[in-house]
Amino acid sequence: MLLKNEIKNILKDGLYNSSLAGSVIRRNRNRLCILCYHRITAPDNRFRYLGIPQDIFEQHIVFLKKHFEIASFDKGMGKLRSGSIKKPLLVLNFDDGYRDNYLYAFPILKKYGITASIFLTVDYIGTKKSFWWDSVRDIIVNSPKSAGLKEDIVMIENINRSLKKLLNEEERYLKIQKLKQEFCFKEKSSKERDILNWREIKEMRDCGIDFGSHTLTHPDLTLLKKDEARKEISHSKEILEQALDKKVSGFAYPYGSFNDDVKEIVKDSSYSYARTCLKGFNNAYEDIFSLKQIDGSTNHIAHLAARLCYRGIRL
Ligand SMILES: [Zn+2]
Known about the structure:
By secondary structure, the chain is of the alpha/beta class. It contains 12 helices and 10 strands. The protein folds into 2 domains: 244 residues, Glycoside hydrolase/deacetylase (TIM Barrel, Alpha-Beta Barrel); 51 residues. The model has no long low-confidence stretch (mean pLDDT 88). Zinc ion binds next to strand 5.
């Protein structure tokens, strides 16, 4: 298994370091690639859970600029629908609305003159609230029982998988309190704000960054009653449009989770398109309310190159 992974890594490095990556990417030139990130961390922060450090992100951007035209989501969708994509086209997305998008991604986007779309979780904007998966991460990583980076990530992912299935927020909250006890976690007296505020959002808007909705509270929409799902989907859009003084066209399903009912509500709420977490590129016949994406969060530029060459398939 170890040898197999090493061979794969050598092949990925070869792909990245040769002109082969460019020619494979050019083969997908009629499709739209949506590349997704969550967090961009400080350059010295190698903790990879849901994020990559700023210096690695800059390497990504240099590679992407070399091989793709990078467009806004609206422009990318316009070209996709009209079938006028002539060279590899890519749209950058950030999910959830983390403040580090402003602190670490935005300076790089400005430096290279490119745009991106950030999908905001509206009830969290400007607050010191934590997403539940970040609470789990804090408990495990800052616990005296922390077992080291790799082991911690495996444990966090296992816990998150079981917590994600819970229907009830209260039940999830109680489980997290129990974890705090189990891992002897001590709450910090003052907590930093992890989520963007309106000032940061508006500054980015004025520099050409787009914003879409990722609901009010980041629920799994398929687990909600229809009226609750409708509130999450349409009310978040209304709040964003009023605050940003701009039409909000894009929606990203929390956890990538959707079904036909949820999709209908998104269409009824006058969004123009919606993105899932399904892997792949999008062609001209794609259902624009279940767009596919590629995960950009990798510290290894050669792995990113391989994902972009093979449309998200993890080789
Ligand atoms: Zn999300």
